[in-house]
Amino acid sequence: MEFVSGYRDEFLDFAALLFGWFRKFVAERGAAGASLEGHWRQLEAQIRRLPQDPALWVLHVLPNRNVGISLGQGAEPGPGPGLGAARLLGDEPPLHLRDLSPYISFISLEDGEEGEEEAEDEEEENGEKKGAGTEKVEPEEGGEPAPTIKEPPLEANPPGEAEEAEQEAGGGEDGCREDRVEDDTGPEKRKGQRSEAAPLHLSCLLLVTDEHGTILGIDLLMDGAQGTVTRGSGTENLASRAYALLCHSMACPMGSGDPRKPRQLTVGDAQLHRELENRVPRLGVKLAKTPMRTWGPRPGFTFASLRARTCHVCHRHSFEVKLTPCPQCSAVLYCGEACLRADWRRCPDDVSHRFWCPRLAAFMERAGELASLPFTYTAEVTSETFNKEAFLASRGLTRGYWTQLSMLIPGPGTPGHPRGNMPSLSLLLSGDPYQLLQGDGPALMPPVPPDPPRGIFGSWQDYYTWRGLSLDSPMAVLLTYPLTVYYVITHLVPLSFPELNIQNKQSLKIHVVEAGKEFDLVMVFWELLVLLPHVALELQFVGDGLPPESDQQHFTLQRDGPEVSVRPGSGVSARLNSGTKEKGGRRDLQIKVSARPYHLLQGPKPDLVIGFNSGFGLKDTWLSSLPRLQSLRVPAFFTESSEYGCVMDDQTMAVATGGGTSPPQPNPFRSPFRLRAADNCMPWYCNAFIFHLVYKPPQGSGARQAPGPAPPAPTPAAPPAPTRRRRGEKKPARGARRRR
What we know:
The protein is of the alpha/beta class. The protein contains 21 helices and 21 strands. Strands 10, 11, 12, 13, 14, 15, 16, 17, 18 and 21 form a ten-stranded mixed sheet that branches. Strands 1, 2, 3, 4, 5, 6 and 7 form a seven-stranded mixed sheet that branches. A two-stranded antiparallel sheet has the order 8-9. Strand 15 (608-611), helix 19 (622-632) and strand 16 form a beta-alpha-beta unit. Helix 1 (10-31) runs parallel beside helix 4, helix 6 crosses helix 7 and helix 19 crosses helix 20 (643-657). The protein is globular and about 80 Å long.
């Protein structure tokens, strides 16, 4: 897929931003060469003329004594040792932090052992986060920034005022996260990655932020790395590095805004503060009288999650070049005519921008419709400049499941998956299934209404009214998952598969395929029993991204009154419990976990299959899982975060099975939070669109199956299918006879 917005871990985009800026900084610092003195005089004069930022700037000095970085060769060849620049920024960037594990390992420098084979995933992912960028010190390719391209556009003049990508640093959240990594990782150990070189030591991290947390510049001081110095090399060298970092941060700030200088600067190290006392005033900047002894967040402090945009072709950031959208579709960002022309003429034609431009223009026209939501905060959260971390922090949404949505505050254990014996359940207090949905303030979820719903809800406003929620409540962000399942059961299945009579079933077995984030938020699905009180539900989460230690685990949530009880069990006891599910007064929700690809799952056929933000084209296992669904021929509904994803899913379904997908429709229970995209301006929302699989007709049935029941009789005059297709149709045909 060309665009991975909504599928890629936010931190990877942020890491690419950090080390894209760092690479540019290193290149320009090295380019000064012999004319160093003249270069700084010219730069100082330029900075003195910059406008003043009223915010306080902070130079953080973050030491690291315990963790070393080992660069592995990885499974694929790359430019130089370890992780090349293309791994984060290239045509096939990683989608998840775990994708970096073959390239980066972290070892303890305390005892010199590379030993312990097993490490907690929280240590592993923290290591990957840090290593994702640290390794970038090695490659030198693409180090020099390109000038802004001002050539005439391809087929139309670009807008005179390019949509200057706001250069929003994905948040200073990582300044804080880097700080935590330095302090908390301790004797962090990872599985060895076959690195022949001695481990690198990131001895110190220099970080420039403003008082609001926006990261403005970064420098990495590594022992043994070329051209790096540490405090052991002399404070003068450290001061020179810090001064160069301050100058570059003012002339080319990584975060949002134009070049500027701070009104006042404070330094987080007493010795470095003394070294800079005679230098900083040259820039027209006031240095605080004393060094910063302690630095803590203000009551309204938050790291901004806004990220600098990138060119879709060359991946350069907006602090390097001026970005403009395509003059025809306004959907894709380019740095100039050269990249626009290269994308326009790509081969084969169906991956070129020439082919996609009219479609993307149509997708852009849906932006207003997708942003039409009834909440009081709709204008803020659907804006292209939406600051997610600021929104969550201002409302006290800094614990429980809310931490899964933010880069500012990691959840317990940092990685997204519950571990071992489902620690998310251990956080259930006083039998309250909504404990993990709460913020720091008053209860967000009102008591369950005494009477079941009298009708079927088709919008957020109807549901909020019945549930007693204020339209100012952000609960829709988490409840999008159970409400989407509810919408499929009550609206879409009866319309597309009326012969199943699903609304009259007393129990439903639902498979949630390629589960990830949904399993991290498992307790939100309790709301299904509130909406469907007379249906016993079994949700089986399936996917090879689930924690292996949770494989084959299951538990049952039961509700006889105002409280919920959690009862773990084994695979056998769950079936023994099924007899109680059909008693009208008891509501049960069974949760099962299968940590494997869907095509390897064994067991009874489900009533319904659901997948969230699936991205068929991003994972090879779908080429096996989709034929498995074709053979089962069960109703299978999927959501996507954009219409572009729906088109790609239809193409993948055609390649994998010969079938297709139904026309996508907007999901009324989509998340209200707009997802930021680095290289495009399309509207992306979690669970934005929904469609179902259209299976290839059984052998001899004639045309491609349409939504609804299959034709009752085959068409004898249908042309024979190719031999390859006949082989693929044998199993579905036998399955159809068995069902009759």
